[in-house]
Amino acid sequence: MPEILPVAYRSDILPEYEGTPVGRLLEYHNLGRAMGSAQTPELLIGMCMDSRKALRIPRGFAFMLRTAGADMRDNEFRISYAIAVGGVRTIVLIAHTDCGMARVARLHDRFVHGLVEHAGWDAARAERHFAESVPKFAITDEVDFVVREAERLRGLYPRITVVPLLYRVEDDLLYQIRAT
Ligand SMILES: [Zn+2]
Questions:
Q1: Three-class DSSP category at 169
Q2: Quick one: 78 and 36 in the same domain?
Q3: For residue range 61-96, what is the model confidence (pLDDT) as tens digits?
Q4: In what order do the strands lie in the sheet with 3-6?
Q5: How many domains does the chain have?
Q6: Is 18 found in the same domain as 93?
Q7: 59 CA to middle of ligand 1, Å?
Q8: Same domain, yes or no: 107 and 155
Q9: Model pTM score
Q10: Which has the least CB within 10 A, 7, 36, 141, 143?
Q11: Are residues 60 and 123 in the same domain?
């Protein structure tokens, strides 16, 4: 299991992140670093679409991609754009605790009934949608997933730094993940 490391003080920031966009993200969000506004984006942040998370970062600091579970699959063009045109050299993938994508396989009835009730779908179509999508979107562990997703992106973009982090919805803070 990867180690989860809190950032309560500047000295908690891992040496490899010090003075980098990742370190600055941790300082802005966890340590109240003064914000101002950034001239050029330093980061691409990939995180889950879950509504409980809000990052404290300056305007202009980061490109942001939000998807279910911070799964970046099928977002390659957007990522490539942020690198090639936007100029970012660092990607941060943020997992979060209590992610719906880790529970979605158990939410069959709610999913099907919800689409029928609120979106006007017929039950058979909703059933099919759920059955086809869950294997693609469900994750077993939030942290393991972003660690593996970061690995995949490093393979795709070998000169780009890709760092997984964790957002705890219980305290709204970012945590570092150290692979063990
Ligand atoms: Zn989530």
A1: coil
A2: yes
A3: 999 999 999 999 999 999 999 999 999 999 999 999
A4: 3-6, 173-178, 161-168, 90-96, 43-48, 62-67
A5: 2
A6: yes
A7: 24
A8: no
A9: 0.94
A10: 36
A11: no
Using DSSP, state whether 92 is helix, strand or coil.
strand
CA of 67 from ligand 1 middle (Å) equals 8
Instruction: Dig out the tokens for 166 from the structure.
Output: 């964790």
Same domain, 162 and 82: yes
Q: What is the DSSP string of 64-75?
A: EEEEGGG--TT-
* Cα 146 to averaged position of ligand 1 atoms, centre (Å): 11
What is the structure's pLDDT at 38?
A: 79
Distance CA 108, CA 129 (A): 11
Strands 173-178 and 161-168: antiparallel
Query: Which residues in the chain come in under a pLDDT of 50?
Result: none
Taking the centre of ligand 1 as the mean of its atom positions, its distance from the CA of residue 165, in whole angstroms, is 13
Ligand 1 centroid to 122 CA: how many Å?
27
CATH number assigned to the domain comprising residue 14:
3.40.1050.10
For residue 179, the CA-to-ligand 1 centroid distance in Å is 21
